[in-house]
Amino acid sequence: MQMFDNFTLFLIYWSYLSYNKLFFFGILNGAFLLSYNAEDESKAKIFYAIVGVLSVLPLVSRLMLPFLGDLIGINVKPIPDFAWYWLALAIVSWALAFWWLRTGVQKFEKVAKKLTKVSSLERNKKTDIRYIDKFLPQERERFDPLKHIDYSRGYFIGLSEQSDPIYLKKGDWDTSHLLLSGRTRSGKGVAAQIIGTQSIQKKELFVVLDPKVDNWMPHIYKKACEEAGQPYVLLDLRQSAHPQINVLQDCDYETAENMLLAVFGLGSKGDNADAYRAIDRKAARQVAKYLVDNPNVTPREVLAVFGEDWTTAEGESKLTATVFAEMFGEMAELPSVNRKHGGIDLQNLVETGGCLYVIGDMLNTRIIAMQRMILIRLLMIAKNREQTDDMKIIRVFADEFRVHISRPFVVALGAAAGWKLLCVLGFQSFEDLRDVPGDLDADMVKGAVLENCAIQLSYRIKDAATAEILAAATGTILVDDETRSIEKNIVLTETMEGERRVSQSERYLVDVNMITSLPVPDPDKKTIGCGVLVGASKTAQFCFTSPIMVERSKAAITPTTPPPDAGDANEPPETAADRVAALELLDGPGTRPGMVLDPSDGRWKRLPKVRLEAE
Questions:
Q1: Is 229 left (phi over 0), alpha (psi -120 to 50) or beta?
Q2: pLDDT-derived band of residue 83, with 50, 70 and 90 as boundaries?
Q3: Dist CA 62 CA 21 (whole Å)
């Protein structure tokens, strides 16, 4: 009995000591919540359970003291009573455990992620538009592109992400079309500046078809021509401009027919109007034949000869070439392309080289037609000239390419490189190229552009479909695709497992997120645009392009050909004798039986079939 009492006193002593000294264990009572949240049979669950049991030891001791005292007849009452302190700490503990599971664990995950050192064996990742700046080059200030021109290394395009000059190989420069794409003011015109300057320096003929009148390019190209000793010719096609060129001058039959078919869209389209287009094509051949026999006539003179006949029905079909007459009449009414003498000679420019800057329009259909006609004329000159190794390159920058599209040009785009007619095609998105003439298919145009433009320089684009196409052109790379498991804990908070699994995946080298977020020029910061260059090397690369700085001058935007004087205005003969001498009987080549052309009013007149005898 004495031994039992001693053992009981021992338990009372340690229970009292545990209660008085370890009441603060109540702060650990929240471990029960953590244990319940942990995975079954995990070490964490066991650990939290043990801690939770230890936390209730002071409370158990408090409850055991009166019972143990009764066993040996002693009144045991803890003084002071710490039970309320333990209970308060237990409540705080559960609140902390709840906060940890609800909020704290997510904050800890964020900190842990920042402090975690990623494996050096990990490859690139897929891009995230929220953090796209990590994948893009930093903004760069302007530089002087002329300082980097070095023909021993190739043809300068821009600077790489590491500020190294990027050059096109001579073989690529001499044989490849180039595609410039990007939204307005993203950098396309700046790239065209350096390309055109080097083209002029190499004695090529650089032709600019500018339908929106750029603020800087005419001045840059004029200065380049002056420094290279090459001619600079500006052709203003707008309605207000004076006569400067005869677009039909010296055209052979094939050239004239193709020009008219392309400009007026007279190809078969498989609809009910094809019968009328056949009549229009017949009229086009009629004009082509007439130009062969009369090489210096202007569109206005051609209309005077055939205009009435095109609108007069003949035969049983009663079909007329009225549509052709109206479209040809629009061309004849445009002063800039009806120069009789002393106008711009495209054939001569091809031989000399230099720069032909053509100011056009994006809205006026007549001027758009003339832009297309000039492009087809250059194509035919390149095709029909003697194909030699030393023939000059004709390089055409067709800005806003959609207004220059015609069936003959698109069909011949691939072959044109072999004729040394190389194109720099500028547009904003492939959606622009869906606005094509009726005799063309939009997908065919897009395919021809992508297939034949071996070199592509793409700036920031917002159109997702276009960005996808251009991203695909950069090729794919292997990246690590990370996966993690997310679980919901007992307090309905999602948490991520610490373990991550990495699998092999692919993405475009420069993907859609990157193309739609490329740096663009900022005039206030004097920073420059950045594009993605494909075709200049084995892999696509970022390319910064900077403008060429020049002073603007009035001469650069003034038509090179002065207004015609009175003698060049194609005035009719003033005397009756001159008029009689000018009459041409239509019994020979290029004539019409029983009719004569009276230059006084430019009309064919029916006369008796007589032949004038020379005095």
A1: left
A2: confident
A3: 12
CB 52 within 8 A of CB 28: yes
The Cα–Cα gap between 444 and 434 comes to 10
Phi, psi values for residue 398, rounded to 5°: -100, 90
Q: Establish whether the linkage from the previous residue to 80 is cis, with ω within 30° of 0.
A: yes
Q: Tell me which DSSP letter residue 257 carries.
A: H
Rounded CA-CA distance 263/294 in Å is: 21
For 248, phi then psi, to 5°, come to -100, 0
DSSP-derived 3-state class of residue 200: helix
Structural domain includes residue 111? yes
What CATH number does the domain containing 189 carry?
Answer: 3.40.50.300
> DSSP readout, 261-330?
HHHHT-S--SSTTHHHHHHHHHHHHHHHHHHHHSTT--HHHHHHHHHHHHTS--STT----HHHHHHHHH
Q: Do residues 401 and 544 both lie within one domain?
A: yes
Residues 533 and 403 in one domain: yes
* Bridge partner list, 271: none
Give exposure, 326-335, as e/b (b: 16+ Cβ within 10 Å): ebbbbbbebb
For residue 13, the model assigns a pLDDT of 63
Which tens digits make up the pLDDT trace of 323-360? 888 889 988 999 999 998 889 999 999 999 999 999 99
Structure-block tokens of residue 597: 């052309």
d(CA 510, CA 543): 12
- Burial classification of residue 284, based on how many CB atoms lie within 10 Å of its CB (0-12 exposed, 13-18 middle, 19 or more buried): buried
Do 412 and 527 reside in the same domain of the chain? yes
Q: By residue range, what is the domain housing residue 144?
A: 138-237+354-362+390-474+509-550
Q: Rounded distance, CA 157 to CA 149, Å?
A: 9
Q: How does 69-84 read in b/e, with b if 16+ C-beta sit within 10 Å?
A: beeeeeeeebeeebbe
Beta carbons within 8 Å of 532's beta carbon, 6+ residues apart: 456, 457, 458, 470, 474, 510, 514, 515, 518, 540, 541, 542, 543
Q: What are the tens digits of pLDDT across the range 1-34?
A: 566 666 666 666 666 666 667 777 878 888 888 8
**Which tokens is 565 given?**
């004087």
pTM for this predicted structure: 0.75
Q: What is the pLDDT of residues 269-298, one digit of tens each?
A: 767 667 778 888 889 999 999 999 888 899
Reduced to 3 states, what is the DSSP secondary structure of residue 427? strand
